Amino acid sequence: MTLEKLSQLGWYKVEPTSPKEIADLFSIVDRSLADLKVEGISDDLRFQAAYNGILTLTNIALRASGFRVLSGQGHHQRVIESLTHTLTTQDQTALEKWVRKLKAHSQKRNAASYDAAGAVSPNDIAQIIRDLSSLQEQVMDYLKQTHKELLPHRPGSPE
């Protein structure tokens, strides 16, 4: 099913984005990257910071595609599931693998947020940091290939 069809079902809303919105979203990713490096906080909170960065990157791909998730129950899941329709520079198998990974991270984040402190292991942190870095590269590549007009100007990068 396409994003257009899913928007007819009320899952997504057609809404154009802007370079400023995309830049603002990337600033959230930057904040998440900085937050997860803070050594004085728990692994649970570091994991949540990395998860927030991943969720924001997924939302960047969705917004660049001209859609927004409608608020409500399952909001995070719909943002994650939108990857199967947005990162069109990857094959469907790779996209489905990303969705499975991100759903697993979401479950871990939920456990750390609502069930018990200490739910995140050092291996969990290492994996989500790798996934955050990889997804950031893939979203940037996607924007470069399909939506150059939305690329934010980053300090130190050529215009």
Please explain how this structure is put together:
- By secondary structure, this protein is mostly helical.
- It has a single domain, classed as Up-down Bundle (Four Helix Bundle (Hemerythrin (Met), subunit A)), CATH 1.20.120.
- Helix content is 67%, strand content 4%.
- It is built from 7 helices and 2 strands; from the N terminus they run αβααβαααα.
- The chain has a two-stranded antiparallel sheet with strand order 1-2.
- Helix 2 runs antiparallel to helix 3 and helix 3 packs parallel to helix 7.
- The longest helix has 25 residues.
Précis, in short:
The protein is mainly α. The protein has one domain: Four Helix Bundle (Hemerythrin (Met), subunit A). The chain has 7 helices and 2 strands.
CATH level 1 class label: Mainly Alpha
Structural class: mainly alpha
Proportion in helices: 55-70%
Mean pLDDT: 88
Radius of gyration (Å): 16 Å
How widely separated are the two ends? 37 Å
- What's the architecture, going by CATH? Up-down Bundle
Name the overall outline: globular
Total E-strand runs? 2
As residue ranges, the low-confidence spans are: none
- Biggest sheet layout: 2 strands, antiparallel
List keywords for this structure.
159 residues, mainly alpha, Four Helix Bundle (Hemerythrin (Met), subunit A), two-stranded antiparallel sheet, 7 helices, 67% helix, globular
SSE order and pairing:
Layout: H1 3-8, E1 12-14, H2 19-36, H3 43-64, E2 67-69, H4 75-81, H5 83-86, H6 92-115, H7 122-146
Antiparallel strand pairs: 1-2
Helix pairs in contact: 2-3, 3-6, 3-7, 4-6
